[in-house]
Structure formats: C-alpha cells, structure tokens
C-alpha cells in the first residue's frame, strides 16, 4: 500500500511552465493571505538537469512574473545584438538573406541569449523561496483518478526495483500525491500528458501534433572569434528539399557558443540520421568559422512540439491542465517556446487559484480555462502564427517562406485563412527500399563526433539494474516489420544510440536497447512507424545531467 | 550514543569533470553537485545504528559555503537529527577541516565520528586520520562492517591482503568504505520533514580555528586524450612496432 500526501496543487515537471505556475500560485497565496500547499515533482536529478533549449529568450512572461528579475539575478546576461539568417546551398556555399526579407517573427532585438537550464535553476530557487515544495529526483509515473474519473494527482515511481521486477535492498514504494488540481508540464510528448490526451480525447478537434528533433552542443571557442549577442539561423543543406528543419548558432557569454540542428520528424527517408546530419552541418564554413579551434563542452537532444495553434489540444480536463510543450504552446514562427510555456503557467496559476478560492464546480472548469486562455496574449500570439509551420510543410521552404513573409509582415498573422497539416509525422516514413542509404562521412573528432563520445558529454546515467523504460508494445515487431521494411529507423533517429540491431551479419539480427544512454528526448515514442515504442519514466534521478544547456 | 557524521558537497559522480580553459581549477559553474558517496555511506551507517537502538542522536556536519546546506538537508532527510554548517568560502584543505571538526567534537562530545574514507573530488583520504590524531582517539579506516560489542566497537576493515577486524574503545573515529552498506533513498515525507530540522551555522572564528592554507593549487590539467589504436597485419609487424615505436620490448 502506497502512502499518500495531500496538496492543493501538484505540478509535474520543473521546467519553465511548471515553475512559473508554482511561483505565481505562491505569489497569489501571499497576496490574498491564503495558505496554499504546492509541490513540483521533477524526474531529473536536480532542477535544470533535463532542460535543453537554444535558447533565444523573450522576457515577456518573465516580466509579468518577476518584474524585478534583474535585481533577483535572473541569468539573462547576453542581449541579442545581431540577427543573421542563411540559406545553405551545399556543403560549401551559403546565401545570407537580407534583413528586409525576413519574417518579423525572426527579428530578435530586445531578446536575450540564455541557457534555459540555468534560467530554470534560478526559477527553481525563486519557487523554493516562495514556499513551493520542489522535489527533483522523483518521476511522476502514474496518473491517479477518483471515482468520478477526475484526475486526483499522480504517483511517483517505485525506487529500487531490479530489472526482473524484484525489489532490491533499498526498495522504496512510490508515493501518491493528491491534489485539487494537477498541472502537467512535462515538456514535449510527456508520457502522462499522452495518456491524458487519450483518455479525455483532448485532441479530438485538433490537427495531429508535429514534432522536430533538436540536437544541441555547447562549445568553448577561440575568444578572437567570439561575438557575444550574435544570433545565426539557417536552413537548407545538409537536409534535402523534402526534409524540413533548420540550424542555430548563438554566441553566448564566457566565449561560448551553442550550436544545434532541428530536424522535422515528418521526414520520409528512413536512412536519414538527424545526429549525423548535425555532425556534418558543423563542417559548413558558416559554422566552422566559429567552431574551428574550439572545444566541445556538452551535448544533448530533445524533441520539440511544433504543431502550433492548429495542433493544440484542449488543455483542460477534470482536475487539471496540460501546460507548455506538454500541450504544444511553442510559437514556431518565432522558434520560441519558453515565454509561451511560462505564460501558460501563469494563466494556469491564476485560473487554478480562483477555482480553489471559489470552490469552482468541475463542470465549470474547462469553460473557465478556455475563457482565460482565449483572453490572453498567448492565444493571440499562437493564433497569428498558426499558418507558419503548415505553410512550410505544405508549400515547401520557398513558397512557404514567401507566404510566411507576407502573412507575418503585411497581415501580422490576421489573414482569414488557416492551413492545416493533417498527416502524423510517423505515418510519413517511407519504406527503406524507396531510397538509397545515406553515406555519412566518418566524424573527424575535431568538429564532428560519434554518438558514444557525444552521449558521454551529456552526463547521462540511469541506475543499471532497473526495468527497461522503453517499452515495446509488441517485442517482436522491430525485427518482424521495422527491420525489413524500414531498416529499423530507430538506429538512426535516436540521437543517443539507444537502439542497435546486432548480429545482422551472422543472419541472426536482434534488437538491443541501451536504455541507460537515453537522453529523454522522446523521439522514439514519436517516430516509430508502428507507434510500438512507449517511453515511460525510469527511476527518478536518471537521465542526462546537463550543465549550462 | 551520540554520533557525529560528516558530509561533503562534491561534483556529482555522473558528471564529466571539466577543467577551466585557463587551467586554474575544475569548472563547477551550474554543474550538478551531490553528497560525496562515501559520506552517504557514513550517514547510512549512523542511521542504521540509530534504528538498532544504539545511537540516540545523529549530528550531520559539513564545511563549506551555504550551498552545502543542501547536502546537510539530504543527510537530515536520510535520518540525521540536526545539522551544523561550518561556513567557509570554499572547502578548506584536509588539515583545516580536521581542526574544525575537532572543535565541533569538543563542543558536541559525540562518542563516535563516522566519515567517508575520502571525497571523490580531491581524493585525499586524510581527514578522518587527521581528526583521530588531533583528538588522540582510536581510528578504524576503510570500514566494511561495524558492530557494538560490550561497549567496544568492532570494525572490519578492507585492507590489501583481505579483511582485518579491530576492536576499538569509544570514543572512536570510523571512515567508511564502499561495501559497508547500500544507502537508502530519501522519501518525500522525510525530505519535507528535513526542511524543518535544526541547522546551525557556525564560523571558523567561533570555533577558534584559523583558515591557514598549507598548500596552493597551481594548475589543473585534464588527462591526455587517448590516441586511437591501429590494426596490424601480422605478428611480425606487431613485434616490430612494439620494438621500434612503443619501445616496450
């Protein structure tokens, strides 16, 4: 029998959305002198350990939460000074786009280059100082419902379970965390958020969610080449014309740059390896000019929910809300999700606090949330950028880009048309026989690296003796269908080398899952063509330990 | 019996240690920190003695900046009763730590001090021994088992040739090795309770200890990167390379 603890609000995930909600709840409680018990559970070993983002940060929501963030020491140290956008034509050539041709949403004056991990660490300190119970190292593993079917909280995972399911020496059963309202802010493709969406059919009126896989590295570079505040975005090579995506390179503080590639997960060619695309991208002169002579410091990867407004599910369900990227509030036109995630947290806090104070009836909950959301700048911003992603997917980068320029700069997103993109990402994968394998060049160990050396830099660790957290619905399917038809694409889309097909040369192929390497990016849960892989939370504290990401 | 147990805040064992570009030290900015694993074993040993009805109170002590209160809170969540942080800018060298601990021992009068055998950052393996010398107490280092027998402490030590069992008069010093126990997880209710337990902050001046540095850190270097191997075509080529290139035969 598990023990239970009672809270007013339980929040799953200590990221921008979850911590903003927690802080705002405590601010409201202090203003109105009402005692409030708020707890945040976080599967990472510490707050910020699993946070990975570019990031160019727009401070609008932070200004609302802590107008004095500067005095409080928020780590926004590098204002954006210059925006550059390139179209890479091939491995050597590039066209720099003139400023006047860029959609307004890609102008970053007034924004900051940040480490979102460090910003979230700071938010965690603010939350604790306000009286929030923040519990890193505890994964929310299970949804709890009351008799009426209303969500009444979550249970944390058992600790100390062996791979065979037996209890090890230090076994500690999970705890039930009960709450009047439970807020889910797990980030893109949260494993509980996915179950909630299914159970309450939250996505019934939405387009399918679309995803990208972001891979990022942090580099110490030659101080002579460092231009703090320079923001570079680009598209084109090495991705082919049928594969969406783009790269970024930001000059942050301390002679460091962050560099990354986002590959849309609706790609068709199963031979494509986002990791290897990123490694070869760094050899392009536009990027190499900064990285050369530098040293790679860190590596990580995370999926991104980029379907935007049209793919946004209902966020409210009886007893709680989906927030931030767990719902899909990223603004793809700006390539930014942190400020929108934070805003969803602020709105959630205000709506939940009022509901608790009034003892709002459950039947009035969803309409109350909808009204609050629709009256917010978050809704307005997402609505105006609703066509950006679908235009690129449906019209291609050129016509789509032109559409986006006109729509964003001339009509400010107010055109009375809405483009839809109704095919799921995993269904777009084509059989391997329709393409030739891509010959990626061997990494040089200077600018490009292999997967094991990369995963090493993410400080990823999982307790070795525990059940595999990458669950196959049908254990035989990878070899029966994925291997012959798609050459088992998991070997290539996984940026951590978790999935390996061994023994193929001997004619006895078997799938090996190296779950200890998992970066918690969720790509396998998204891209498996049969949706056969289910990502569940491993023992709390496992996963990457990203510093400064 | 009152037990004093020491905890050190160190870089997490999962984190790849990185040297600062100017080689002045290891880079700890925004890096995950944790309780030194050997200290966790020390805390667990103390908690088990309390659960066995032998210990009556466990005091957790850490030396370092206020951030190390996090590790003291972890010790409190694991079962220590109260904490003491000795506030210093950076963790001082072993001898100073031992002197600070000796001053705490003089004030607290524990019958047993349990320390980790070494910290995984500096790997000095000195503090416990120095503390025993300063206090003139018996010590048993590298403990893999301990039990109380008729008022004396029986400690099994891991030594090069095997195991050695010592009987110590109390008060005594024990330093823990890896196999002494497997530390438990802190539970959520205990983490919440730990936030309310007493945690005092003391200064070296209050304890009458001067922070004198006897050594100076000159430089930190990362180990040289391993060169990739090569495949040889034949045994004779291998022998040739071992002779002429590796110069090992």
TrEMBL record, chain A:
It catalyses: a ubiquinone + reduced [electron-transfer flavoprotein] = a ubiquinol + oxidized [electron-transfer flavoprotein] + H(+). GO terms for molecular function: 4 iron, 4 sulfur cluster binding; electron-transferring-flavoprotein dehydrogenase activity; metal ion binding. Residues 445-546 form the ETF-QO/FixX C-terminal domain. It comes from the Bacteria. The keyword Nucleus does not apply. Keywords: 4Fe-4S, Electron transport, FAD, Flavoprotein, Iron, Iron-sulfur, Metal-binding, Oxidoreductase, Transport, Ubiquinone. Coiled coil: none annotated. Its cofactor is FAD; [4Fe-4S] cluster. Its EC number is 1.5.5.1. Binds 1 [4Fe-4S] cluster. It is an enzyme of class 1 (oxidoreductase). InterPro entries: ETF-QO, ETF-QO/FixC_UQ-bd, ETF-QO/FixX_C, FAD/NAD-bd_sf. Residues 211-304 form the ETF-QO/FixC ubiquinone-binding domain. Accepts electrons from ETF and reduces ubiquinone. This is Electron transfer flavoprotein-ubiquinone oxidoreductase. It comes from Azotobacter chroococcum.
UniProtKB/TrEMBL annotation, chain B:
The electron transfer flavoprotein serves as a specific electron acceptor for other dehydrogenases. It transfers the electrons to the main respiratory chain via ETF-ubiquinone oxidoreductase (ETF dehydrogenase). The keyword Ligase does not apply. Keywords: Electron transport, Transport. Its cofactor is AMP. Pfam families: ETF. GO terms for molecular function: electron transfer activity. GO terms for biological process: carboxylic acid catabolic process. CDD domains: ETF_beta. Heterodimer of an alpha and a beta subunit. Coiled coil: none annotated. This is Electron transfer flavoprotein subunit beta. Residues 23-211 form the Electron transfer flavoprotein alpha/beta-subunit N-terminal domain. It comes from the Bacteria. SUPFAM superfamilies: Adenine nucleotide alpha hydrolases-like. Belongs to the ETF beta-subunit/FixA family.
């Amino acid at each position: 029998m598990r023990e239970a603890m009672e809270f007013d609000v339980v929040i799953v995930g200590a990221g921008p959305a979850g911590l903003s909600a927690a802080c705002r709840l405590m601010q409201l409680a202090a203003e109105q002198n009402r005692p409030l018990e708020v707890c945040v559970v976080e599967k990472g070993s510490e707050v910020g350990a699993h946070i990975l983002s570019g990031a160019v940060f727009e401070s609008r929501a932070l200004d609302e939460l802590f107008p004095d963030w500067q005095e409080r020491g928020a780590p926004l140290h590098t204002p954006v000074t210059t925006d550059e956008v390139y179209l890479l034509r091939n491995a050597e050539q590039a066209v720099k786009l003139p400023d006047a041709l860029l959609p307004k949403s890609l102008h970053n004056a007034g924004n900051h280059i940040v480490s979102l991990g460090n910003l979230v660490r700071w938010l965690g300190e603010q939350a604790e100082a306000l009286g929030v119970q923040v519990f890193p190292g505890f994964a929310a593993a299970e949804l709890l419902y009351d008799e009426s079917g209303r969500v009444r909280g979550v249970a944390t995972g058992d600790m100390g379970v062996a791979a065979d399911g037996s209890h090890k020496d230090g076994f500690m059963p999970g705890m039930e965390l009960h709450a009047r309202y439970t807020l889910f802010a797990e980030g893109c493709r949260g494993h509980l958020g996915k179950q909630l969406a299914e159970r309450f059919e939250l996505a019934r009126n939405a387009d399918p969610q679309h995803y990208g896989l972001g891979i990022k590295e942090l580099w110490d570079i030659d101080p002579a080449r460092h231009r703090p505040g320079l923001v570079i975005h680009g598209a084109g090579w090495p991705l082919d014309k049928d594969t969406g995506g783009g790269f970024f390179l930001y000059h942050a503080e301390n002679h460091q740059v962050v560099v990354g590639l986002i590959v849309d997960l609706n790609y068709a060619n199963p031979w494509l390896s986002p990791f290897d695309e990123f490694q070869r991208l760094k050899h392009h002169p536009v990027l190499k000019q900064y990285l050369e002579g530098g040293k790679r410091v860190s590596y990580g990867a995370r999926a991104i929910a980029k379907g935007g407004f049209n793919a946004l599910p209902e966020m409210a369900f009886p007893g709680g809300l989906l927030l931030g990227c767990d719902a899909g509030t990223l603004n793809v036109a700006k390539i930014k999700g942190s400020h929108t995630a934070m805003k969803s947290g602020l709105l959630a806090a205000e709506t939940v606090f009022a509901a608790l104070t009034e003892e709002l009836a459950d039947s009035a909950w969803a309409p109350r949330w909808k009204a609050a959301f629709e009256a917010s700048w978050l809704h307005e911003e997402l609505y105006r950028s609703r066509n950006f992603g679908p235009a690129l997917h449906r019209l291609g980068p050129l016509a789509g880009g032109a559409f986006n320029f006109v729509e964003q700069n001339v009509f400010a997103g107010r055109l009375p048309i809405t483009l839809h993109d109704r095919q799921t990402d995993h269904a777009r994968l084509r059989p391997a026989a329709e393409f030739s394998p891509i010959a990626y060049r061997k990494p040089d160990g200077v600018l490009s690296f292999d997967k094991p050396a990369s995963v090493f830099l993410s400080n990823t660790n999982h307790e070795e003796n525990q059940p595999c957290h990458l669950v196959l619905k049908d254990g035989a399917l990878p070899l029966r269908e994925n291997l012959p038809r798609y050459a088992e694409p998991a070997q290539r889309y996984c940026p951590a080398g978790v999935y390996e097909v061994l023994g193929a040369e001997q004619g006895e192929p078997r799938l090996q899952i190296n779950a200890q390497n998992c970066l918690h990016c969720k790509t396998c849960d998204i891209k498996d063509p049969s949706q056969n892989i289910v990502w569940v939370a491993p023992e709390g504290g496992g996963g990457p330990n990203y510093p400064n990401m | 019996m009152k037990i004093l147990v020491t905890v050190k805040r160190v870089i997490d064992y999962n984190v790849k240690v990185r040297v600062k570009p100017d080689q002045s030290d290891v880079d700890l900015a925004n890096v995950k920190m944790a309780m030194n694993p050997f200290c966790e074993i020390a805390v667990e040993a103390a908690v088990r003695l309390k659960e066995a009805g032998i210990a009556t109170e466990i005091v957790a002590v850490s030396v370092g900046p206020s951030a190390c209160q996090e590790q003291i809170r972890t010790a409190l969540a694991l079962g220590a009763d109260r904490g003491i942080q000795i506030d210093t800018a950076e963790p001082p060298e072993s001898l100073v730590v031992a002197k600070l601990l000796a001053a705490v021992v003089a004030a607290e009068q524990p019958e047993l001090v349990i320390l980790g055998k070494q910290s995984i950052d500096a790997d000095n393996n000195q503090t416990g021994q120095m503390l025993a010398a300063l206090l003139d107490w018996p010590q048993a280092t590298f403990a893999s088992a301990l039990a109380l027998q008729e008022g004396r402490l029986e400690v099994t030590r891991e030594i090069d040739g095997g195991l050695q069992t010592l009987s110590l008069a109390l008060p005594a010093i024990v330093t823990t090795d890896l196999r002494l126990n497997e530390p438990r997880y802190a539970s959520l209710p205990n983490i919440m309770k730990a936030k309310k337990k007493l945690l005092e902050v003391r200064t070296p001046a209050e304890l009458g200890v001067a922070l004198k540095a006897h050594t100076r850190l000159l430089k930190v270097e990362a180990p040289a990167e391993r060169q990739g191997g090569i495949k040889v075509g034949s045994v004779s080529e291998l022998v040739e390379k071992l002779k002429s290139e590796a110069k090992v035969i």
